[in-house]
UniProtKB/TrEMBL annotation:
<comment type="similarity">
    <text>Belongs to the ABC transporter superfamily.</text>
</comment>
<keyword id="KW-0547">Nucleotide-binding</keyword>
<dbReference type="GO" id="GO:0015807">
    <property type="term" value="P:L-amino acid transport"/>
</dbReference>
<protein>
    <submittedName>
        <fullName>Amino acid/amide ABC transporter ATP-binding protein 2, HAAT family</fullName>
    </submittedName>
</protein>
<dbReference type="InterPro" id="IPR003439">
    <property type="entry name" value="ABC_transporter-like_ATP-bd"/>
</dbReference>
<dbReference type="InterPro" id="IPR052156">
    <property type="entry name" value="BCAA_Transport_ATP-bd_LivF"/>
</dbReference>
<feature type="domain" description="ABC transporter">
    <location>
        <begin position="2"/>
        <end position="234"/>
    </location>
</feature>
<keyword id="KW-0813">Transport</keyword>
<keyword id="KW-0067">ATP-binding</keyword>
<dbReference type="GO" id="GO:0005524">
    <property type="term" value="F:ATP binding"/>
</dbReference>
<dbReference type="InterPro" id="IPR027417">
    <property type="entry name" value="P-loop_NTPase"/>
</dbReference>
<dbReference type="InterPro" id="IPR003593">
    <property type="entry name" value="AAA+_ATPase"/>
</dbReference>
<dbReference type="GO" id="GO:0016887">
    <property type="term" value="F:ATP hydrolysis activity"/>
</dbReference>
<keyword id="KW-0029">Amino-acid transport</keyword>
<dbReference type="Pfam" id="PF00005">
    <property type="entry name" value="ABC_tran"/>
</dbReference>
<dbReference type="GO" id="GO:0015658">
    <property type="term" value="F:branched-chain amino acid transmembrane transporter activity"/>
</dbReference>
Length: 235
């Protein structure tokens, strides 16, 4: 579904992502693992079109995407839920969700999609008239993922969905990500919570200093205790 070939991403003279080649197959949950500053967010931004200074090629559903603008990518089904949620704090939950229905097709489907979002996150329905900025961190994360779903993603990019959440809520968020995936939405997520990523993802790319240093599947990981210990803190 998504193929990156030899992608470099630059901020001025600084090369934050170097020579990355990776793929995401339709239906998968793939996790980008790496410490602070490894380049996870930059890589997601290059896929969604927020970072534009890049070399290499990004192909989505057999279409070259490197030069596409964000709005073109959204219309083709690439939706990004950024780190830190980036909600509109002075708008209500409902208004935030409606803002996510960007493309013509998404607007047409908005009523049905909102129903599904409320099934996945009943708390959002209870709070639909509350200002997003007054919600708890966990509720805001739900709203950000819900807003992403309103864009009718084929590929949903989730940047640190568990950041700053209590352990019980982290579990709920990952369970919901799995349900979204079961609805047929492919997921690429950047995470520092390696335990939950290991549990819920099909494959993993490990990033260090902007470079992919390892690729693992759930099965290969199960057989490789050295990798489990080095990158996931598990024996
Ligand atoms: P974290 O888990 O802390 O969010 P990350 O793996 O997502 O980290 P990035 O945010 O992609 O890492 O940052 C990768 C590198 O690019 C870092 O060295 C960072 O300082 C740098 N960087 C990120 N954004 C910019 C920017 N707008 N201008 C210059 N450098 C940037």
């Amino acid at each position: 579904m998504l193929n990156l070939s030899n992608v470099d991403v630059m901020y001025g003279k600084f090369v934050a992502v170097k020579n990355v080649s990776m793929r995401v197959n339709e239906g998968e949950i793939v996790a980008l693992i790496g410490s602070n500053g490894a380049g996870k967010s930059t890589l997601l931004k290059s896929i969604s079109g927020l970072c534009t200074d890049l070399n290499g090629e990004i192909v989505f559903k057999d279409e070259k995407m490197r030069c596409c603008k964000c709005h073109e990518k959204i219309s083709r089904g690439i939706v990004h839920v950024p780190e830190g949620r980036k909600l509109f704090p002075k708008l209500t939950v409902m208004e935030n969700l409606q803002m996510g229905a960007y493309s013509k097709c998404a607007r047409k489907e908005a009523k049905n999609t909102i129903k599904r979002v409320f099934e996945l996150f009943p708390r959002l329905e209870e709070r639909k008239h509350q200002l997003a900025g007054s919600m708890s961190g966990g509720e805001q994360q739900m709203c950000a993922i819900g807003r992403g779903m309103m864009g009718l993603p084929k590929l949903l990019l989730l940047d640190e969905p568990s950041l700053g959440l209590a352990p019980k809520l982290v579990k709920t968020v990952f369970e919901t990500i799995k349900k979204i995936n079961d609805d047929g939405i492919t997921i690429l997520l950047a995470e520092q919570n390696t335990t939950m990523s290991l549990k819920y993802s099909d494959r993993f790319y490990i990033l260090e200093n902007g470079t992919i240093v390892n690729e693992q599947s759930k099965d290969s990981m199960a057989d490789d205790s050295a990798i489990r210990e080095k990158y996931f803190g598990l024996v």
